[in-house]
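Thread amino acids onto this structure.
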């Protein structure tokens, strides 16, 4: 992302959870129960709304 400014920032809690910021939830129509996919591409984190068919890859 380089010199881009984030829409918002969140903090990861002791339980390793975070909140999707309201501007992001509203813009992307994310609701309770929706599934998000997490990716790393060229050192950048990408989070997208998915259909829930993905898997946990550690």
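Threaded sequence (58 positions):
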């Amino acid at each position: 992302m380089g010199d881009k400014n984030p829409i918002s920032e969140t903090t990861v809690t002791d339980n390793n959870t975070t909140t999707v910021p309201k501007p992001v939830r509203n813009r992307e129509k994310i609701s309770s129960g929706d599934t998000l996919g997490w990716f790393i591409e060229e050192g950048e984190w990408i989070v997208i709304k998915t259909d829930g068919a993905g898997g946990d890859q550690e």
